Amino acid sequence: MAFEDVVGRIAANLEHMKTFTATPGAGCTRLPFTKEARQAVEYLKIIMAEAGLEVKEDTAGNVFGTLQGTNPELPCVMMGSHYDSVINGGDYDGIAGVICAIEVARQLKERGVQLKRNFVVAGFCDEEGMRFGTGYFGSGAMLGKRDVHYCKRFRDTDGISIYEAMREYGLDPHRIEEAKWPEGSIGCFIEAHIEQGPVLDAGNIELGLVDCIVGIQRYMVTVNGRADHAGTTPMDMRMDAVEAATKVISKIPDWAREKADGTVATTGYIRTVPGGMNIVAEQCEFTVDVRSRNNDNINDIIRRISAALDRETEAIGGSYEMDNKLTITPVNLSQNMLSIMEDSCREHEYSYQYLPSGAGHDALEIGQVIPTVMLFVPSKEGRSHCPVEFTKYSDFAKASVVLLDLTETLLAE
Ligand code: HGY
Ligand code: MN
Ligand code: MN
What we know:
Layout: H1 3-17, H2 35-50, E1 54-57, E2 63-67, E3 76-82, H3 95-110, E4 119-124, H4 137-142, H5 148-153, H6 162-169, E5 186-194, H7 199-203, E6 207-213, E7 215-224, E8 228-229, H8 241-249, H9 252-259, E9 264-266, E10 270-273, E11 279-280, E12 283-292, H10 295-316, E13 319-328, E14 331-332, H11 335-347, E15 352-357, H12 362-366, E16 372-377, H13 393-412
Parallel strand pairs: 3-4, 3-5, 5-16, 6-15
Antiparallel strand pairs: 1-2, 2-4, 6-14, 6-16, 7-12, 7-13, 8-11, 9-12, 10-12
Bound molecules: (2S)-amino(hydroxy)ethanoic acid and manganese (II) ion (MN) (2 copies).
């Protein structure tokens, strides 16, 4: 298969995937358990089958394609990423890693590579956590970390729980635990992904060898005050939830900067209730997303947020809740698989660089318990999670060359 043909196949699949969005013309919006998710899964099933894979959709909404090895009882080599997106996101985040994995499978098949162990392509559901504020739903279910209580606990901003959304989508949340793979059945996990940051593009580097992924903690904070008339209520009689919340929110970025080691903290969502311009806010909801390679830094910032909430809500005579949505520790990735990919980059004369990942990825969840590695391709101007997200199709093809070398090495072991 000529390199240009690989580029063409990857391009055709990703161009088709672009049509599965709830916001055409305004980026990719493909949330879990929606029409767009169903369209993506059905298309992945078709191209996985065309590549000669045995296709299966599990009880969590993940889709897997398997190339059978001669010893299927051996731990498999798994490669993939997620097929969901953020709201108004880009066209490559997640899904490009699934398409690259299918491309590797096709070439293994076309080359007639003898597989000792199974090669499994994975398309995970709801890595982003965009709809329910969580994250890694599908990969977590594969590891046995999701149950029906989890599905009932988390709701989207319309108040629909994961449980209800799954049933609406045609899945039975009471069967979620069937998505768990047997202990030891996955030998390693490989994820190709866009960098979503500026490093490779700025350095004109073709591929990124990811040696670690940051830890993440996510919360939905609700500050409770009291609704009052905005004109007649004196300033010293108010219980203004927005005043208390914003005094905390405004401090969070500097607490991250003080760490001076790449630690980041973000408030990406704020909502006031009842949300009238002439009503003192009764409630103010906001999200917190803190990430670092150093888990102590994350814990310290969360502690400071909680202490500031104590102080500022007491000052208005109000209260608050801090609902933990995700807690996951930093993970170091497989040196063995990194060095195999480094050798491949050298052999094909691809420029490369080792770098950490500031984004989470299914690899963060899976890498907690299974040897895992990631391969990055450049993001134009480092932009991602927005409609201008862009990566050249030839970059994905280069990644698939290195992934194929890695996979052939692992499948021969
Ligand atoms: O938020 C992240 O790190 C990833 O894009 N899910
Ligand atoms: Mn993302
Ligand atoms: Mn992603």
